[in-house]
Amino acid sequence: MLQAHVVITGLMATDNPYPGLGIARCLRDAPEFRGRISGFVFDPLSTGAFCEGVFERVFLVPYPAAGAEVLLERIHEIHRADPIDVLIPSLDSEVILYAQIARELASLGIQTLLPPVGSIKMRSKNQLYEFCRGHRFRCPETFMLNNVGEVSARCRDLGGAPFVLKGALSDAAVCHTVEEGEYQYWQLFHQWGYPILMQQYIAGEEIDVIALADKKSQLTGAVVMKKFGLTPKGKAFSGITVEDEKPVQLTRQILKSLKWIGPAECEFLRDEKGRHYLMEINSRFPSWLYLAAAAGQNLPLLTVKLACDMAVRPLTSYQVGKLFVRTVSDALLDVRQFMELTVSGEVRL
Questions:
Q1: What is the pLDDT of residues 163-183, one digit of tens each?
Q2: Domain 141-200 sits in CATH 3.30.1490.20
């Protein structure tokens, strides 16, 4: 039996849910896990924190913008009162912060499974194209835009519309005219700031791979999912596991080239000729990770084991044709619990 106090971040579970609740559910469903699960949130209304029977304690921590030093100070305070064994961040904006303080956390006895800071930066949207060119992975041609006037010129460089504009951290828009591109440029800028990325449009179907790499950057698990239903922003609310060895092989090579450690999601687009283009690499588990566990690969459980330097056997198979459908449910709590979290910075559930 695995006894550990595991802390998980990223517990918002609204229309575009964070992965944290799924990570916790995977651990709760693992028969060999008999530890405790707590949550770190930077908003008292992080809805997933109040899912019944999942988290025992929830703590308020600073927003990522506060920086690594402030975060570490808060973790020190929490760890003194309730020692933490393993910490799993689940947001891209948090992963790099925790990677920066991983040594300090280890000195406290808090284990993590995180990539080097340089690897995290290399997979960022504004560096991914150069990484792919250097390692001969297919990736859509990409430009960084410094002003809205470049939309027209870069459109010609890409051979005309359609093209894709992407925000610095999230969101993307397919643009069919230069005028539409200029409008979307400002929409993305006001939400995410610079840089705005302009990318070659490639028609095809999206294939996503959830993956986990050990401390030697070896793949220890991977599940391929095809999106079945999309929100207006292109996020999957339904998906199905499929058998496709090619993106798994590519993911193995990509993570090895990045010297990656820990969870990741590689997003590919497969064109009509069967070629796979790497679109994005997310530095954490995706929100649909519960599907992977249901299909036979409980990657959060492996994450805890690898963080604790326990021996694990790589997972090489999973159930094909497993379908997930995202639903909505209401969680009820006493208002005093919400007030306690808001005022004191922690609450027992």
A1: 888 887 777 888 888 888 888
A2: yes
Q: Are 196 and 188 in contact (CB under 8 A)?
A: yes
Query: d(Cα 204, Cα 268) in Å, to the nearest integer?
Result: 10
Cis peptide leading into 162, omega within 30 of 0? yes
| SS3 category, 229 | strand
**What is the domain partition of the chain in residue ranges?**
5-112+329-348, 141-200, 203-325
| CA–CA distances in Å: residue 72 to residues 87, 101, 293 | 12, 7, 31
Query: What tens digit of pLDDT does each residue of 68-117 get?
Result: 999 999 999 999 999 999 999 999 989 999 999 999 999 999 999 999 99
What tokens appear for 329 in the block? 């449910």
Tokens of 305: 């084991």
Q: Apex CA 283: angle with CA 304 and CA 101, to 5°?
A: 65
What is the residue whose two structure tokens read 């951290």? 169
Q: What is the pLDDT of residues 11-51, one digit of tens each?
A: 988 777 889 999 999 999 999 999 999 999 998 888 888 88
Within 8 A by CB and 6+ apart from 312, the residues are: 214, 220, 302, 305, 306
- Which residues have C-beta within 8 Å of that of residue 62, sequence separation ≥ 6? 42, 70, 71, 74
Question: What CATH fold (topology level) applies to the domain 203-325?
Answer: D-amino Acid Aminotransferase; Chain A, domain 1 (3.30.470)
CATH of the structural domain 5-112+329-348, one choice from 3.40.50.20, 3.40.30.10, 3.60.10.10, 3.40.50.11740: 3.40.50.20
What is the reported pTM? 0.91
Locate 243 and state its tokens.
Answer: 């058998």
Task: Please state, for a pLDDT cut of 70, what percent of the chain lies above it.
Answer: 99
Helices 245-258 and 125-135 sit at what angle, rounded to 10 degrees?
100
Residue with tokens 């760890």: 79
> Strand ranges (DSSP E) for 137-195?
142-145, 163-166, 172-175
Closest residue by Cα to residue 82 from 40, 54, 113, 24: 40
